[in-house]
Predict the 3D structure of the following.
Amino acid sequence: MSNTNQSPLQRAAWLCKLYFIRAAFSFAWVALAFTAAKGSPALAIGLLIVYPAWDALANLLDARMTGGAKANPTQVLNAWMSGLVTVAVVVSLVLKLQIILVIFGVWAIVAGLLQLATAIRRRKSDRGQWVMMLSGAQSALAGGFFVVQQGSAAPVVQTFGGYAAVGAVYFLISGLVILFRQSRAKAGALAPEKA
């Protein structure tokens, strides 16, 4: 089911809320990655599984609330990709394959390009998309870095934590841009007309 009857203000409010929720989730994830997960391999594993699973859910919610699957093919594809990455991470951990950074790297590249495509498509109808364009491009570049880092001694959760932190900042800024523009639009609408 999709929400196709939203006004532009309702859609902007939804995206603002989603971006703030995504930022909060990522900041919490990063905090755990750099604190408790350092001393808990089980928590580190859980964080590696939860992150792409959450991304899949967030992309599905985004698509559902902004016109449905037909209007948001890049979001739906991104959700499927994140779901497959979740499964790949689980399989890699169970089989003790040392390829997590490659999995996250390929995911970051593809997800970043899909996010960039989504933001370009939305730039005329939704505010704050320039931030999402930067985020998508940065994600694709970071993915290449992860692939190159595979096999190094760097801890996977903390290596990915830096990426998640930057993503959180992008979501926060995008949410603030939408909120600021909404406030300005409401103020303009309430301003008395000049005679």
Q: What stands out?
A: The chain has a mean pLDDT of 88. The chain has one domain: 8-186. The radius of gyration is 18 Å.
